[in-house]
Design goal:
The protein is α+β, with helices and mostly antiparallel strands. It contains nine helices and ten strands. The strands form two sheets. Strands 2-1-5-4-3 form a five-stranded antiparallel β-sheet. Strands 7-6-10-9-8 form a five-stranded antiparallel β-sheet, sandwiched between helices. Strand 6 and strand 7 form a beta hairpin. Helix 3 runs parallel beside helix 4. The longest helix has 52 residues. The radius of gyration is 56 Å and the shape is rod-shaped.
Length: 363
């Protein structure tokens, strides 16, 4: 059987059968090698170790460089195949043009296929991009999917639905913002919205006029005023998430400032102009005080004249009437003194010498 394996072997190939002990059994090119030992050959050693490899070596028999490769078969023997290096080189040289041609054809086919595939994928993507650009510009128009890919058509359909809803939402949001801007711009009160960090997120024109500022959105509320009391009370509202109401004066005008913290974390400041009310109160208080003083002077004179009459009269009836007049004048003077006291209290912005009292005990 070993001898038959070495028969009918192509001329450029050499086959050698080596027994398990390394002795040559048969060789297709040199039958005289039978019985000689090849155990020291590198390719036989590699096959014996279970790691066969190609070995290049000069053949004394064929007088040329050969490539050797051996494998171990089930019965323990080895089959070694050899081919001339020049044959391999000639094969490579003869196949290079063919390989280059095949490579060129493959590249051409790949390019054409890539162009076709790209046109089929990129064009729908360009359609999607164009649709999204129109949505961004609020000019969306629904397009009918016309690609040959059902999945891409489904995606384009879904994008149409989402884009339509998105456009409606954008329009509603824009309209709502315009309405809010109109209200904030035309309301008579100054309005400032602060975020949870105390930075200004919104401010209307009236508030900008009150604080004499421009372009302060994104900045801290402390840029609104240099008033320490104002800043301290607003900071307390922002930090403690509480509400407050107090008076604030700027440029000769008086405002009632209401700070209210919302659930979303915003703090809204509303400044209402109460200058006219304060001036009216001041004028009323001044008139009240002046009128009281003017009334007190003639009443004192009347009381003096009445006292003179009471001292000089001898008639009982006149004396009785004088006593009644004196009593009523005392009542009027006491009422005037009370009004003067109230006017004085109204003129004071803060109580002086304040102390805790028991209202029930006083009552």
């Amino acid at each position: 059987n070993s001898v038959s394996l070495t028969e009918d072997v192509p001329e450029d190939v050499r086959v050698t059968i080596v027994a398990a002990d390394g002795v040559v059994v048969a060789d297709s090119r040199d039958k005289s090698l039978a019985g000689s030992s090849h155990a020291d050959r590198e390719e036989i050693k590699a096959a014996f170790s279970g790691e066969p490899k190609i070995v290049t070596r000069y053949s004394d028999t064929l007088k040329k460089d050969m490539l050797y490769y051996a494998i171990k078969v089930d019965d323990g023997s080895f089959i070694r195949v050899a081919i001339a290096v020049e044959s391999v080189e000639d094969y490579v040289k003869s196949t290079v043009p063919t390989m280059l041609f095949v490579t060129f054809i493959s590249l051409v086919v790949a390019y054409v296929a890539g162009v076709v595939a790209t046109d089929g994928i990129v064009k729908p993507l360009n359609d999607i991009k164009a649709a999204l650009v129109t949505v961004k510009n609020c000019e969306f128009k629904e397009s009918i999917p016309h690609t040959g890919d059902k999945e891409i058509n489904d995606i384009l359909t879904e994008i149409n639905v989402v884009s339509d809803k998105l456009q409606k939402t954008i329009k509603e949001s824009t309209a709502e913002k315009e309405r809010l801007g109109y209200l904030l711009g035309n309301i008579s009160d100054g309005i400032v919205a602060l975020d949870s960090e105390g930075n200004i997120s919104e401010i209307n024109g009236v508030a900008e006029e009150i604080f004499s500022v421009r372009g302060v959105c994104g900045k801290s509320f402390s840029v609104l005023a240099a008033n320490k009391t104002f800043n301290a009370r607003i900071k307390k509202c922002v930090d403690e998430r509480s509400s407050d109401s107090f008076e604030y004066e700027a440029d000769g005008k008086a405002y009632i400032c209401t700070a209210k913290t919302l659930e979303a974390g915003y703090t809204v400041l509303v400044l209402s102009d109460i200058t006219a009310v304060k001036n009216a109160e001041k004028n009323r208080s001044e008139f009240f005080a002046n009128a009281s003083h003017e009334l007190k002077t003639p009443l004192t004179a009347v009381k003096g004249f009445n006292d003179v009459i009471a001292l000089q009269t001898k008639e009982k009836t006149t004396a009785e009437l004088s006593a009644k007049i004196d009593k009523e004048i005392e009542r009027i003077i006491k009422l005037i003194n009370d009004m003067l006291g109230l006017s004085k209290l109204e003129a004071e912005t803060e109580p002086k010498d304040a102390e805790n009292i028991d209202v029930a005990e006083i009552a």
